[in-house]
Amino acid sequence: MPVNSQFPTIGNSAFVPNSNPISVIQNGGLLAARVIDISLVTSTNGASIFQTSGEYANIGAIKFELLNNSNTKENFPQGPIAYPLDTNVRKVPLINEIVFIMSGPSRNIALEGNSDAIDFYYTNAISVWGRSHLNMLPSNSSTSKNTDTTPKEDVEKGITNNKDSQVKEPKPGNTFEEKANIRNLFPNEGDVIIEGRFGNSIRFGSTAKQSKENKNVESPWSTEGKEGNPITIIRNGQSQVDLPNFNNWFPIYEDIQNDDSSIYMTSGQTIPVVLASNNFASFGIDAVPIANTTKLLQNVPVLDPSASLVELDDTENTYDTINQEPDLSTEASLNAKVIENFNKELEIIKGIKRTEESSQTRSNIVREEQQINDQYTIKGEDI
After folding, report:
1. Are the beta carbons of 346 and 303 closer than 8 angstroms?
2. Which of 141, 240, 259, 331 stands the most exposed, by the fewest C-beta atoms within 10 Å?
3. pTM
4. Which position has the higher pLDDT, 152 or 378?
5. Least confident stretch, 10-19, 100-109, 204-213, 369-378
């Protein structure tokens, strides 16, 4: 059965030596390309990628060069520009990362009436190094190959290399800072994990108890709970504990104690949390104020339980017949107790002496007097 030439095969892919990129695209193939610029900042330069890719409408567009192909400009006379394949879920590539380029319908079909118009679109960056942080693969021509640019005899005499003879480090971007200590998360069977480049992640996982011989890779939350119980972990900032003692290529689990911040949504798992303080004495303190100044509403029986609210609402009275005013016969004695407690506390504050042992200052005393005065207020008037 003949193979449909419209679908990508080994024969029409871009990896076949001397294959024509335009022919590959016309046959639905994929082109491996290196990102050389990204439209993420504005520019008034007409030759900038921001201007040539459509300004704000196409933020995230890239300029690319084909791998092992020095004729990118000739093959793409309109400019080697590609747009994100999906703008709902974005993974912005970095300079020198590798993506796949494919062709697809262009908006110019509608704007210009050109039924043959196509644009180029790019996929997420390929995990060349298997890292969530960075997967650069610079071209050989972008870095220095020969670092022995100064004769050995001159180096022995103390002559150092000048700046033009140093190894040129490839750049992943203008603001991105490469960090060698960012490691991948260790996955379990069935996990769905979204990892950012900066030690931030979301894991949709479960209790996954390992066999005795694999306990060294068991997750911290799988010691307890029923197998398969869901757990969702949102983490922001990877733990920096014990980094020198681990190979940076080894994946890790989330660490609730040492990650910068995290949210754990559990279902029967035990999370090993170390408390910041083991002093529980504060839980025994009675937080109820000495004097309760709240007037408690008394239970007043409804005049006619069978009547509607409208019927019970007497507009001639100055208060509602349902929510009748409480008995205030004890208000005088309550006020007397409030005044007594207020005066006691005020005398204690005034009796504080300005000594070297005291951490109080006169301004502290005045402020506390005002706070107590504000606390003991009856009917909106200061005592």
Report:
1. no
2. 141
3. 0.60
4. 152
5. 10-19
